[in-house]
Backbone:
């Protein structure tokens, strides 16, 4: 895949983000009048296939993209997303082996209630 200036801008936005972003979020952060939403979407899907970005679905609503691997705690009350480290990275092969399964990647989101929503 050719790395155009628009694709570089998309990756830059993702690599600077601390929380996952939707395609719309990314599009709104890039100041380029030649860029359109479908280009962002197609680029993200290509990046995902080529394993340059991570993709997750949160609250079964829509896809979010990240420039780095993370897991998330998502509050069912306020929908706050809290990034947490990965505790199985590097163990995927050992997890899949007993089942004859070759793991290519993983995604994990845990749902519950944040401190604020637990007390209100």
Residues:
């Amino acid at each position: 895949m050719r790395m155009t200036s628009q694709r570089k801008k998309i990756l830059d936005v993702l690599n600077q983000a601390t929380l996952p972003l939707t395609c719309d979020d990314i599009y709104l952060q890039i100041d380029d009048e030649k860029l359109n939403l479908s280009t962002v979407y197609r680029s993200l899907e290509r990046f995902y296939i080529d394993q340059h970005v991570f993709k997750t679905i949160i609250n079964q609503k829509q896809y979010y993209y990240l420039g780095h691997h993370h897991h998330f705690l998502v509050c069912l009350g306020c929908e706050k997303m809290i990034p947490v480290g990965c505790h199985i990275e590097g163990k995927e092969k050992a997890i899949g082996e007993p089942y004859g399964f070759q793991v290519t990647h993983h995604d994990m989101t845990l749902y519950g209630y944040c401190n604020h929503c637990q007390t209100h």
